[in-house]
Amino acid sequence: MKRSLLVLLVIIAAFVGAIIGTLFTLNFIAREPAYRSIEQRQNVKSVHLSKDTSNRLPAALNFESAAKSVIPAVVHIRTSYGLTGFSLNALDNYLNPHAQSSGSGVIISDDGYIVTNHHVIEDANSIEVVMSNNHRFFAKLIGQDPSTDLALLKIKAKNIHFVKYGNSDQITLGEWVLAIGNPFDLNSTVTAGIVSARARNIGILRDKNNLQIESFIQTDAAVNPGNSGGALVNLQGELIGINSAIATATGSYSGYSFAIPVSLVKKIMDDLLEFGQVQRGLLGVQIADVTADLAENEKLDLLQGVFVRSVNKGSAAEISGIKEGDVITAINGHEVAGVSEMQEWVARNRPGQSIQVTYRRKGEIFLVDAILKKIDGSKAMTKREISYQLEGAEFEDVPYPKLTLLGLEGGVKLKKLSNGKWKKAGAEEELIITHIDKLSIDNVADLNRVLEMKKGGVLVEGVNQLGEKKIFGMDW
After folding, report:
1. What is the pLDDT at residue 53?
2. Which of 84, 111, 188, 261 has the highest CB neighbour number within 10 Å of its CB?
3. pLDDT reported for residue 338
């Protein structure tokens, strides 16, 4: 009897529980509101969910800030080659086509100085700069250096975004870096990689005096045609290199890219800015990397450094006491494992500057000071020569008060005219030239720079002494 009662109670409890559960479920479903937006539903329901922080990147791997700060200062450079025309007939552009090329550049000052590769603008007749916001400028070539594959451009702009120099001496292998440029004409492309090696020499530069410097930063960031001249930056958004080359058998990225270290860029840019040409200080030695084979053949007691094969007569090295067979191990206290590192450290200095050279001879270490010289043996700085007489015309800078009176920002006066291209084109004396092919002319040095890169027809703009605008074309 008791057992039957217990079974009955269990059955009754299960029945009551089922009824209550069913009523609860029906009540819950009845109260669930309908919705018409999945996204809205997701947003409402995810408010109370705890977020998974396991995939949150540490600050050291956050690329966003660096990319955002650098992109506005990386520009697209378009160059034209062959004859340039001044004809107002648009058909001429089709009848006389000219080759075009493109690359990248990096704005390094708020007033419009831009660094790029020499090979990006080499032999160009016209250089156009396109900003990340699509603003366009024609650029002047301030100077170029084939031995380092660098060039300095200038656009007429103020208060623009620029990339601050970093310190390429402090980069470490495995450090994250970003490459920013315009590969395949795709503006503002950002790729990431790590520093794979330093002071790489890959044998791509040539110089008539065999003074080329290759001390590249090697990275595995994807760099392709069009990236040349673009920025290599650290995660603080600081410039540590100018992308220059790729190692490839196909013409496109396939593993490694190479950038000129900013330590060298800074010096070259200052030289071009101040003198219009590079001031190269030389130690005056013929050198080679110390290898295991060389060390064995020359009976050296070390396996790294720079072996001195010969010393030029009258050079800084000879005067300081360096001799054939010595092994240079440091420049200014910085160890150099090979030729590339040594060349970079020496190239940071100008003629007349003293560097400390550490070298080893027969197991003994020596420290000497060497005063660098130019290739011709002199120590003096030389500025690019300015010609005030060009093709039958004599020019002079215009005083600032005169420019202000005419409402001009810059210009050069055609002081005297004789037979030549200017007279043939219809130019007149006292004309103040303000633009050549839309490039502003501030002074005679500007006129020299601009005309030096022109071939064929050019468009000349200016004002006469009455303030009247004059425009004419001339064959240059």
Report:
1. 54
2. 261
3. 94
Per annotation, catalytic residue among 76, 147, 149, 442: 149
Residue ranges in the chain modelled with pLDDT below 50:
24-26, 28-30, 84-91, 93-95
CB 95 within 8 A of CB 87: no
**How many whole angstroms separate alpha carbon 224 and alpha carbon 433?**
41
- Written as six digits, the tokens of 308 are 């001195």
Residue 293 annotated among the catalytic residues of the structure? no
Query: Is 132 annotated in the active site?
Result: no
CATH 2.40.10.120 domain extents, the chain: 58-278
Helix, coil or strand: residue 260: strand
Per-residue burial over 31-64, b = 16 or more CB atoms within 10 Å of its CB, e = otherwise: eeeeeeeeeeeeeeeeeeeeeeeeeeeeeeeebe
* Given the residues 132, 147, 196, 228, the one annotated as active site: 228
Q: d(Cα 141, Cα 109) in Å, to the nearest integer?
A: 15
Correct CATH for 58-278 of 3.40.50.720, 1.20.1250.20, 2.40.10.120, 3.90.230.10 = 2.40.10.120
pLDDT at residue 299, rounded to an integer? 92
CA pair distance 470, 258, nearest whole angstrom = 48
**Which CATH class, in words, describes the domain spanning 389-475?**
mainly beta
What local confidence, expressed as pLDDT, does residue 88 receive? 44
Encoded amino acid at 397, one letter: D
What pTM does this model have? Answer: 0.83
Residue 202 has a pLDDT of 84
Question: What is the pLDDT, as a whole number, of residue 19?
Answer: 59
If one counts every other C-beta atom within 10 angstroms of the C-beta of residue 311, the result is 23
Q: What is the CATH number of domain 285-371?
A: 2.30.42.10
Instruction: Give the active site residue among 119, 196, 263, 442.
Output: 119
**Phi-psi sector, 22: left (phi>0), alpha (psi -120 to 50), beta:** alpha
DSSP for 87-145 reads: -S-TTHHHHS---EEEEEEEE-STT-EEEE-HHHHTT-SEEEEE-TT--EEE-EEEEEE
